[in-house]
Q: What sequence folds into this?
């Protein structure tokens, strides 16, 4: 009889030890799950914030680029009008030269824009009326430059650079959105893993969630801050 009681006591103690060991494993797993959930939730909020900032920065940069595009169009129009006016007076000068009217020629030359007048002088130096290789007009001379057209080119280049920054901000925002999807998947895996009572399955799901979380965190860490 005493021997039977000792066996029963030993059996109950063994069951308690197993239950305690099982409880400790569950507590460790639950702590890990809470840590993963917390990190995933914080990372999701951060990624969403960065994605929103990226969209806002894209809008601002695109608007700024549009302003420069408008200024470039205005400068280009002014430059083309200036070149057309110089070209019209140059055509009139050719007619005055053909009519042998030096006074009209001198007056038309004075009406040239400063840049066109410089190119006109250089063009005459090429002896265009006897040299077949001479440029067809002052506007084709290397020394000629149109300030408005050059300004338009500079503004267009600046607008293109700003648009590229906006596009980069959009792509970065899209990457942050992709990261939020991964973090959401981590949350889903942890939630699903908590439904299982078998230690092996629960640990496997948690391991997959941890690996996915580490991958997503590394991706976010390498992205530029917006």
A:
């Amino acid at each position: 009889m005493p021997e039977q009681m000792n066996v029963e006591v030993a059996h109950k103690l063994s069951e308690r030890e197993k239950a305690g060991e099982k409880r400790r494993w569950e507590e460790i797993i639950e702590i890990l799950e809470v840590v993963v959930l917390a990190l995933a939730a914080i990372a999701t909020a951060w990624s969403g914030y960065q994605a929103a900032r990226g969209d806002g920065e894209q809008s601002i940069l695109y608007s700024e680029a549009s302003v420069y595009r408008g200024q470039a169009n205005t400068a280009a129009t002014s430059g083309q009008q200036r070149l057309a006016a110089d070209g019209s007076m140059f055509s009139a000068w050719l007619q005055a030269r053909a009519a042998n009217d030096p006074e009209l020629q001198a007056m038309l030359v004075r009406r040239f824009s400063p840049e066109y007048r410089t190119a006109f002088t250089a063009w005459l130096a090429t002896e265009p009326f006897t040299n077949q290789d001479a440029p067809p007009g002052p506007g084709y001379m290397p020394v000629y430059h149109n300030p408005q057209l050059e300004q338009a080119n500079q503004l267009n280049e600046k607008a293109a650079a700003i648009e590229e920054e906006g596009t980069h901000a959009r792509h970065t925002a899209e990457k942050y959105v992709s990261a939020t999807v991964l973090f959401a998947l981590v949350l889903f895996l942890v939630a699903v893993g908590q439904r299982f009572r078998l230690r092996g399955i629960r640990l496997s799901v948690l391991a997959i969630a941890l690996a996915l979380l580490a991958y997503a965190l590394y991706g976010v860490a390498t992205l530029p801050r917006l």
